[in-house]
Structure of Fungal-type protein kinase domain-containing protein:
Amino acid sequence: MFSSHQGYRGKATWGGATIGSMNHFCPWLRLRLRLRRISGLALPASRGQLITFQPSFTLTNAHPPICIFSQPALNIPSPWACLTLHFTAVHIAISIDYLERSLRSHAMADRSRSEVIMANPIGKGLDTFRVSFEYKCKDLAITGADALHHLSGEGQKNSLLDLISALLVCPASRLLPAKGNNVNLFGDLLELNTAVNAGNFDIKHILPLLRAVLNNEPDEAIWDNVYAAVAASTAFTVAIPTTPPLSAPSLAASFPQTPWLRNTSSFANSTEHRKYVDDVLKEELGTMYAGVPGLFEAFFGEIASLELAAQAVLERCKAGDNPLYLEGSGWQGWPESAKERDVLRWFAELTDQFLGFAEEHRPAPRPQRRPLAQPHQPLQGSTADRKLDIGFVDDLNAGVDSKCHWKQILIPGELKSNPSADIASKAWLDLGRYAREVFAAQDDRRFVLGFTLCGSRMRLWLFDRLGAIASEPFDVNDNGLQFVSVVLGFLWLNEEQLGFDPTIITKEGKRYIEIERKGCIERLVIDKVINRSPCIAGRATTCWKAHREGDNSRTPLVIKDSWQYPEREEEGELLRNAAEKGVINVARYYHHETVCVGGQNDDILMNVRRGLDITKAKNYRPESSMPPPSMAGRRIPRTGRSSSAGRKRSSSCTDALLPPSKRTCSSSPVKGGRGTANRVRRRTIVSDYGLPIYSASSPSKLLAALEACIEGYESLHTRDGRLQGDISPNNLRINEDERNPSWPAFIIDLDLAIKEQREKASGVRSKTGTRAFMAIGVLLDDENHSFMHDLESFFWVLFWICIHYDGPGKDIGPTEFECWNYEGNRKLAELKKGLISDEKDFLQTIETKFTSHYKSLVPCANRLRRKVFPNGGRWRDPNQRLYIEMKEILHAAQNELKG
């Protein structure tokens, strides 16, 4: 029976016979005092008799020791029965020992727990939840915790999530021990939160806790009920989830992901050197459609008396013995060599004469503008030095030596001496560079008109949030009337016709917009520009800080305008939905609308471009049949990936397609491409205002803000099933102003947010983001987007800030990492993989590159690297615990800094 126990040290004998090895029974020996306590225990015999158990034993000095049992005083004939009862007593004794130890341990833990609870009272920490719950139940016939049964399924779940969120904020939750395997009770609550959100719970397990909170019971009672709810969560019954469970989707892309396109608004801490910017600008603009019929009529046809005035001016130019213009030979004084300097002088002088001749025809009030030529003097207001050949400005006194700002440029122009420069890679791209600066400097500009003059060959241009289109070219000498009409048109266009936003009103030194909210008109006064994306094509987001007129407290609001693909969900709806689901630390909804101009939705195709048909452009080619520019001259890397949105180089002399950059990323797989796309302007207003996270007043505040933003991201994910999709320093905000009622730290921008559980691509043609902070898997574009990608982006945000800022908002300028703004996706992914793969190398990098202000965060950054990149490589399996692990690292680092 016992001889089968091998490897035990020591043997048990009965009457000289070995009956079992003894190491298994050492606890019996250690507990003989306890055995004596139960000596005399009456045990039932097989025939109803009572057996008195009085054990005795002798331990020999042999090696291994042998325990010899003496004949017990038992009135039963079999020694085996005696031995069985003997070991039964041993098990009882061991149970007593375990119980005594357990009681002592629990007593010590209870004392420790009580001390934590007393030192960290809940105070008013649950008051907001109580008020919120009572408000939800105000129309019910029942009050208290039992009212939970009478709420809808979503109402029940949201109330419980609100309660757990309130408990998570309480300091004691991070100091109290865990019930399970987590670091603390905070971790247990997060797991409970996940179970509740997934619908895997039974309300009855939560009711005692809810009742204790609503009844304002003592803190000890509340935390006891928290522990009970946490313990019960492991036995939650699985209900049919109202929200798809948080199990991560397969890593392999199950359908084409919306492609990331590079964009000139995505540079971070960059010099914006021209050789780098031009590559990205080419990709951003895509095909620049030239020869679009009707462009002049669409934009100049609304100018009163323009046709009549232009004809009259041309007649004046033809008159006299020394006419300015002769049919067949052109304009007097036209420089035959067409050198830029000479053409600039000729153009400026002729424009002044046109103005004089058109005096009696000019509209009232007279626009205050004139042409300005400063080809050798950089204009103010750009990141890098940018010069402008010629442009129309809103300052009649501006001259060659005036210091002008890009804010003053109404219409940019580009001059080239040779007509052969009238192609995409030369004059067109140069003009695009100027248009980008105009957009960036003028926060209320919807579109920009411009012109190119290559030799005597002139085109009109329109730059908008889809790209650029141009008129058919004409020769200024052969078509004098057209030239006069264009120049007068540039001088006489009103602000709305020039592309300024009429919904932003300026009056008595104040700028404001008006919205209709809850049946009333509200006027929102703009305090300042927060951000203006410096790009041409794209979402082109602009944010303003504002307040309601008449609000003496000037509670801040944020107005956001962005040009969205109509296929994409409205951010305002997403924010409102998030608010209804109790999402925390995400900008809170106030209002949203589609902006209207001229009585119709402000979109590109119909409202800005006036219905112009780009398929009639001279260089138009159906995009569905062309390879994308990023694939031009290269092998397409993966089969099964559509390139229907691409373009191929035109064979025409216009060189309409900009040459492909060596650093381009994959193009859209979605049908139609950018050529047939549309964008519509949407306005979203939120009630949370903060500064970019790199403005944090200290390293500790930065970590606290990151922790809160991760909580916000997690809340959006777990409560609403959405992934924010664009984690970057500007989308993480911090509020250290005690007078500001906004979240202390929060996430903004749900423009690129997606449902985690989706069955197909959104249909959106492309999306842009800040590439320096993109996850490696996103750059390689071979995985479904996951919450893990965005958590990795949080790591890159911290890494970037610690290198590029040496104090609150103190940018040290470009570093060796500037190339991350411009490198191709695969190259950038390889750079990032190389950086994080070896711990020693990573530590050496950050110890030398982190600024003195953030040097103390080196250990924290490395701990995050270990979690985000297990074993120094890309994660392969989604890890739901990464939320907890990252927050715990950030929280521990804060405590280290304080200590």
Q: What stands out?
A: The longest strand covers residues 520-532.
